[in-house]
Specification:
This protein has about 500 residues and is α/β, with parallel strands linked by helices. The chain has three domains: about 150 residues, Rossmann fold, CATH 3.40.50; about 120 residues, Serine Threonine Protein Phosphatase 5, Tetratricopeptide repeat; about 180 residues, DNA Cyclobutane Dipyrimidine Photolyase, subunit A, domain 3, CATH 1.10.579. About 45% of the residues lie in helices and about 10% in strands. It has 22 helices and seven strands. It has a five-stranded parallel β-sheet with strand order 5-4-3-6-7. β3, α1 and β4 form a beta-alpha-beta unit. α10 packs across α11 and α11 crosses α16. It is globular, with a radius of gyration of 25 Å.
Length: about 500
């Protein structure tokens, strides 16, 4: 059976299978879908399944926007499959349980000879797929997987010495040199959809409700976060009207600058190839905004290949081992500082506004992710892994590779990270990127009446200004939990172990 697959071309030979099963994971769409395309091309009958994997779900809070986002997106996938097949019995098969068991049993039940899926390079996913591949093989069933989540993966972009890149700019240059229109071509699905098979009666059920899988509704709908492929396309079309201004607007949290597609990229409700197809020609035509946005997409590829090629970062280790010798704050004091950060009680308005944004919505503007990460690590002296874990729990768009990459960048422990002595000043960041205080006033309304000049560091405001605004530092709004200048000196001393290590022969 292995001879049917040509690894050099990542395509299957033309010998058809009678029945194939497509296993959706982080690719919740039906268009431009690598695994679905190959299944439809090489199987006479194709079924599509998603498993609510209890190995993942059991650790999550019972109200989790991501689970609701997945569920709502699956409802759309189910309807689209039925429409494409033109058969009322067609649609998505949804299971709930341990994925590695459910997939094997379902493939046997459907008498599928082959299971198709797209790559997921997160450590737990790789371990799961090894198990699934083995269990399927025990029953004579093949697992074929494909690149879909990124434009280039694993070892596709290497240095001239055939080594993985650990610095972004040379990686980006190599990526841009390598990319062709063929790399960005969509995988055809609709023209092959006649091979989508009706579901057996015992599997022809609607997508289960949140309650059916033990979860509760969240504020996802109230936040008006669009779900599914249709939601992603609506956001993309809106962003394309603003893409040329992206460089000018992307750093200001009160301005509609980003694409807001990160959660859709995370769950694959949009194809990365489509986004790159939109950005790349615009870059070539001279759009600075499109060029910068494409760079952000390439950063995503970069961090995915870092996770694959430097597996220790996915195990909680610093990319640069020397940084694991740093002594972080610990004990009761450290936990009090961390709780204040989590609960938006730092006394620094921009930091608190950003933390309220993530706590209330599951989203945080990218500039603010850098600000709050720098504050946690370099103002409070807290281990970056604490922040990484908090984001992993709270971000709608949590993605291990990007989240780890971002936190290690902020802590200076990662590849191509900011130097350890670069420490964001939360006041100047506030003045620069929220100059009118619109973002702060939205999320920290208790400071709304302060004059803008006093809004960024309210403890320095004049008594009359505080009184007129109804602000009492320490009561209606906290005093700063650290002095930034003092914290900076402590951080430089804390990071001295790294400096000494770098200087030693």
């Amino acid at each position: 059976m292995a001879a049917l697959f040509d690894p050099t071309r990542q395509t299957l030979m033309e010998t058809p299978f009678s029945c194939g099963l497509v296993w959706l994971r982080r690719d919740l769409r039906v268009s431009d879908h690598a695994a679905l395309h190959h299944a439809l091309k090489h199987c006479q009958r194709v079924h599509v399944v998603f498993v609510f994997d209890t190995d993942i779900l059991d650790a999550l809070p019972r109200a989790d926007r991501r689970v609701e986002f997945i569920r709502e997106s699956l409802v759309e996938v189910d309807a689209q499959l039925r429409s494409l097949a033109g058969h009322p019995q067609a649609g998505l098969i949804v299971r709930h349980g341990v994925a590695k068991d459910k997939i094997v049993k379902l493939a046997q039940h459907l008498q599928a000879q082959v299971v198709f899926a797209n790559h997921d390079d997160e450590p737990l996913a790789l371990a799961r797929d090894i198990q699934v591949r083995g269990h399927l093989a025990d029953h004579g069933i093949v697992l074929h997987t494909f690149k879909d989540h990124v434009v280039f993966e694993r070892h596709e972009v290497l240095t001239q010495m055939a080594k993985p890149f650990s610095v972004f700019t040379p990686y980006k240059n190599a990526w841009l040199k390598k990319v062709t229109s063929e790399d960005l071509q969509p995988f055809e699905v609709a023209s092959l959809a006649k091979r989508l098979a009706p579901r057996p009666d015992d599997l022809a059920h609607p997508v289960p409700s949140l309650g059916d899988i033990g979860f509760e509704p969240t504020n996802l709908q109230a936040l008006k976060i669009p779900t599914g492929e249709s939601g992603a396309q609506a956001l993309l079309q809106d962003f394309l009207t603003r893409i040329d201004q992206y460089e000018d607007t992307r750093n200001f949290p009160a301005v509609k600058g980003p694409s807001y597609l990160s959660v859709h990229l995370r769950f694959g409700t949009v194809s990365i190839r489509q986004l790159a197809r939109e950005a790349h020609p615009r870059m070539l035509a001279g759009s600075v905004g499109a060029s910068v946005w494409l760079s952000e997409l390439i950063w995503r590829d970069f961090y995915v290949q870092v996770l694959h090629n430097f597996a220790h970062v996915g195990r909680g280790q610093s990319f640069k081992p020397d940084y694991d010798t740093i002594h972080w704050e610990h004990g009761t004091h450290a936990h009090k500082l961390f709780d204040a950060w989590c609960e938006a009680r730092t006394g620094y308005p921009l930091v608190d506004a950003a933390m309220r944004q993530i706590n209330q919505t599951g989203y945080m503007h990218n500039r603010l992710r850098m600000v709050v990460a720098s504050f946690l690590v370099k103002d409070l002296g807290i281990d970056w892994r604490w922040g990484e874990k908090y984001f992993a729990t709270h971000l709608n768009d949590f993605d291990l590779s990007a989240n780890n990459g971002g936190w290690q960048w902020a802590s200076s422990s990662g590849c191509d990270a900011q130097p350890y002595f670069r420490i964001f000043n939360p006041i100047s960041q506030s003045e620069k990127f929220d100059p009118e205080g619109k973002f702060i006033r939205r999320y920290v309304p208790e400071l709304a009446e302060l004059p803008t000049a006093a809004l960024h560091a309210p403890w320095l405001a004049k008594p009359m200004e505080l009184q007129a605004a109804g602000v009492v530092i320490g009561k209606t709004y906290p005093a700063p939990i650290v002095d930034h200048a003092e914290a900076r000196e402590k951080t430089l001393a804390r990071y001295a172990v790294v400096k000494k290590s770098a200087e030693s022969p």
